[in-house]
Structure formats: structure tokens, C-alpha cells
Amino acid sequence: MSRMLHRLAAVAALGLMAWGCTENPVKPSEHAHADGVRVLLDGQPVVTVDDDGVEGEIVVPVGGVTPTVQVVLLDHDGEELEPAEGEYLEVVVEETEIATFEQEGKGEFAGRFHGHAEGATTAKLRLMHGAVGYGHVDAEWSVPVRVAGM
């Protein structure tokens, strides 16, 4: 008898799961998904990261600072997107002895790179969602950064 109850319970659970999958009370987001980024240096595009790969690099002088860097989100067609509500940017430089990034404000999509030592590193641009400093990663792009004597 107990085997029969277990089987009945399993069949009922599968039926509920199948029924639950047909009804989705959550509506899909109307905001387009960011598929890439364009990095602007003093308003001019210097790096694009999209489905085709990475084109360009950020060059920082040793002991110097870049002009303002802006990060622009791109959709699948390469068109610019506005960040959705609750989205913010987090920048992590892999080798901070080579370069660092100073954001204009927590979560802002702009800032400046500081060059500390000649070499190459990568900046991870993370599109975050949630409270600034406590959100989760929605997308991440790697951007090459080169510090050179100029």
C-alpha cells in the first residue's frame, strides 16, 4: 500500500510541475538585454566588446591618468542601451600594480584609469543588478588595458 501511495504522490507532483510550467505569472522584461559594451575615452570610442570579440584597448600613461572613460551598453545589434533600473557598473582591474580604475561615483558608468607601471592587464566590466555594492552580476566583459611610457 505504501508503494502505491509513493507512486501516486510522484505522479501528482509531476502533474503539478507540468501544469505550473504552462502558467507563468511573471511577465518578461521589456528592457533590452546588454550584449556588449563600448568604452569611450573623452567621448571617442576606443574599445568595443560584442559577439564578434574585442576591438581596441585602453592606453594609460605610466604615472598618468586617462581622460574620463564612459562605458556604454550595447544591444545585440550594436545599438546603445540605457541601463535598466537597478543596474550599475563594477570595474575590477586584474593587476592593480599596473593600473587602477577610479569610478566617478559608486556604480557609475564613468571614471578614470590610473597608470602605475608599464605593462598590460585586463579590466573586468561587470554589469550588476541590485543595490550598489550588494548586487549580482548580470553580464561581464573583459577590456584590455595597457600602461605605457609616453
Your description of this structure?
The protein is 14% helix and 47% strand. It is globular. The protein has one helix at residues 2-22, and strands at residues 36-41, 44-50, 53-56, 58-61, 69-74, 80-81, 87-93, 99-103, 110-115, 119-129, 136-148.
Main features:
single chain; 150 residues; mainly beta; Immunoglobulin-like; 7-stranded antiparallel sheet; 4-stranded mixed sheet; 1 helix; 14% helix; globular
Concise account of the structure shown:
The protein is mainly beta and 150 residues long.
How many H/I helical runs? 1
Got a strand count?
11
- What is the beta-strand fraction? over 45%
Shape: globular
Q: Would you spell out the secondary-structure blueprint of this structure?
A:
Layout (H helix, E strand, L loop, with lengths): L1 H21 L13 E6 L2 E7 L2 E4 L1 E4 L7 E6 L5 E2 L5 E7 L5 E5 L6 E6 L3 E11 L6 E13 L2
Parallel strand pairs: 4-11
Antiparallel strand pairs: 1-2, 1-5, 2-3, 5-6, 5-9, 7-10, 8-9, 10-11
